[in-house]
Amino acid sequence: MDWAKARAVLLIAFTVVNLMLAYFIWGPSAVLPGVSEASPQQVVDQVRATLAERSITLPTTVTVPRTPGPMRFLHVEYHPTPRFTQWPAELSDGNGAPVGTSGPRGAEGVQALKPTIDKETQAIVYQPAASGPAARDVKLDNPHQVQQVTDDYLRQEALLPAGAVFSDMLPQGDTGRLTVEYVPMFDGYPVFSGYVRADVSARGIETVRQLWVQPGAYTEAPPKAVRPAPEALLRLAGRLQNSGSKRLVIREIKLGYYANRSLTVTQADGVNGWDTVPVWRISLDTGEVYYINAFNGEWES
Fold this sequence. Notes:
CATH class of the largest domain: Alpha Beta
Largest sheet: 8 strands, mixed
Structural class: alpha+beta
Number of helices: 5
Number of domains: 3
CATH topology of the largest domain: TATA-Binding Protein
Strand content: 25-35%
Radius of gyration: 27 Å
Number of strands: 16
Helix content: 10-25%
Shape: globular
């Protein structure tokens, strides 16, 4: 055997193999043959399969939003309304100042609807109980009609603030009612910290809850990267995997701003202001809604 020739052949072969490996690893594609980065749709499909293993359905009809660029914190404010010159005592903060609302038909309208305060959320609650102007023939299986009836009533009673945008229509479990929700918008994003929510039955408008905020401006803090929506869905799966044997269905996942009003600081003029954070809001077919901080992936209460 010609060992010198054999050695030369082996050296050439090893050199060729090393060059091929170097090309596959550091070449233009930067990946090994047959391996590529998952596409956004493949990621969603993988998340859908993981959710299904935990009895959570992500229908193919639900759009999973793409990840936007870096976002900022948003400052919002809750203003006591000056329109109510004769504020009912039960809606006062104890010093004669109104707790705040968008302002339905002046003091006369407030008295007629007999509003109360939800002590847990501090929202103002009106209970027309589907009587008078609130009595409507509603077909709950017709979302367009439900929204139209709700729009008409809220505008008629001046309960819908300027700039309010329809946000969602949430089922109320097995009660046979729907909650129609309106929120403020800022820079194209819904601001979930403020809302008007109307509970609607087949008889008409039953209850209206109102906690309205005014989006102000972005804070001076630098923009931060947003975690992707699929990650928020997986965090939801981890939270709900021990919640029972019932299969849950995801209705919607949406990016917006939110922070609980318990974080407020009251200024001298009675205005409450606080910073909201980008969140992924995930709603279920049960009517439950979850907020996941889009900066750090933590739950927002």
